[in-house]
Amino acid sequence: MRQATLVLALLCLGLGACRGAPDARDPRPGSATTSPALATAPAIVVAAHPLAVQAGTEVLERGGSAMDAAFAVQLTLGLVEPQSSGIGGGAFIVSYDARSGRVEAYLGREQAPASATPTMLERAPGQPLSRAEAMLSGRATGVPATIAVFDLALRDHGRLPWAQLFDHAVRTAEDGFTVTPRLERHIHGPFPQASTDDVRALFTGPDGKLLRAGDTLRNPEYARTLRQLAEGGAQAFYTGALAQAIVARTTQPPLPGGMTLDDLAGYRAEKVEPICRPLRDYRLCVPPPPSSGVGLLQLMALLEETGATALGPEDPQAWYLFAEASRVMYADRDRYVGDPRFVDVPVQGLLDPDYIRSRAALIGASAAPGGYPHGQPAGAPTPGPDRTSEPAGTTHFVVVDGQGNAVSVTATIESFFGSGRVVGGFLLNNELTDFSWSAGAERAANGITPGKRPRSSMTPSLLLDAQGRLAGAIGSPGGNSILAYVSKALLGAVYWDMPLADAIALPNLVALGSRFNGEAGRMDPHLLQTLRQRGVDVQPGSGEDSGLHGILRRDAGWEWGADPRREGTAGHPIR
After folding, report:
1. Domain limits for position 534
2. Dihedrals phi, psi of 238, to nearest 5 degrees
3. Residues 224 and 118 in one domain
4. Domains held by the chain: number
5. Bridge-based pairing state of the strands 539-540 and 515-518
6. Which of the residues 394, 410, 459, 569 is marked catalytic?
7. Which end of the chain is more exposed for a tag (fewer CB within 10 A), N or C?
8. 413 and 321 in a common domain
9. Model confidence over 244-279: pLDDT tens digits?
10. Up-side HSE of residue 139: CA atoms within 13 Å toward CB?
11. pTM of this prediction?
12. 394 is catalytic
């Protein structure tokens, strides 16, 4: 059964993005259409790697819930997509309970240790470290949160015993898996973390050479770590030998950090109410700050107010309005969003219809030189300027079980391979560089404070219909580009009525401040010329591409989409 799941997964890798909801055990390429059997309650896993999809479908087949399967997916992604997420990082989760219709959010954001100071990422007063120095330092690692947030969410939504959720990841770590072309590109990548001793040791084969696509990667140390967690529960991560190893690695040079055993033992994930707003015929639900879900909701409201939603993907005006609305949103998001335990985030003010209209009215016939100033929504504090710079790492996946319960998860270790430091076969995050830490940034909403969680662009989302039933789920990796990626897909699928996979495949355009980055090579030359004449000069982007994964219900049934820019696919359990 597992072999057949992988067959279709590999087929979809070749196709790039697949539409509809085929049975993952039907390997016919032509079967990627909406299935009548899935018209009401799809059981599906959509994730960035076929083996992670397989891990989730196995759990669903054993009677596990969507949350059970999501944890199994994450454990496997930390092995097969280690450049993007893992148990040494954090995650945001939005869940839907089919019986009650309730949507809940779980915040598993890494946080600064008690020793953190506003100047901890400076080499001297007023002289910030370079990004490369900061990312590789022991000071960059926040208290990991992935295990804690899934432990919390599974207490509410799990069905299978905790220990049974580790089986696939343990087996794959011990038996090995085939290195993909995307993982090869990161192993041999030009970024600093790829050159650390820990990363090179993790990806060096028996012949002493760095692994290439097609080689087998085994990680027995990760298997041992997972066995510890399976037997000892979540507390085995935050106390005892594993916690000691984490603290020891982060307190080693260069630039040792100040994390302690007390920081680990005291970490708590948080269950909170999501933020939900209308989106055409749907209701869009996202996690609250320190996630940037409020930014996604604001951007979608701006697109409606400007009329971009009434146009279409071939219309240059639609892309012009998308770019300018994005710049307006990012100006507000960057100024005001931070950890609400430490700063007042004016969520209601940012989403107030009158405020949205006032912000949309700033958009004229040509692009504003240099960008837009932040606004003054009701309830806004007066924080200092933001100087956050977010790398483009991370992963996103979606799970729905046979009862219609759903989970949308975005997870990260921050930049590629995190801090480049390895403990127990997994990579530690460098999440604290997601704070605004340049000189003079201590007054920013996202400034460094002990115990504070850095702002995140991660925005896992759920869609509900008018009756409060599950209608879709979506999200993406990509650093601060996440908001542009997800809004583009929602614009195409919800407003322009495109198939979800086609909406995901639309060219990416990220407009922020004075820059316009995007997939210029995939855009129509006439579109690019028209945008350029209006001040939107799209330049090829940098960093990691989008990794949008999602599902959407249409009148005829369910569709799923995996980003053609990555190696994602979907799978279904046997009913």
Report:
1. 272-389+495-540
2. -100, -5
3. yes
4. 2
5. parallel
6. 394
7. C
8. no
9. 999 999 999 999 999 999 999 999 999 999 999 999
10. 23
11. 0.93
12. yes
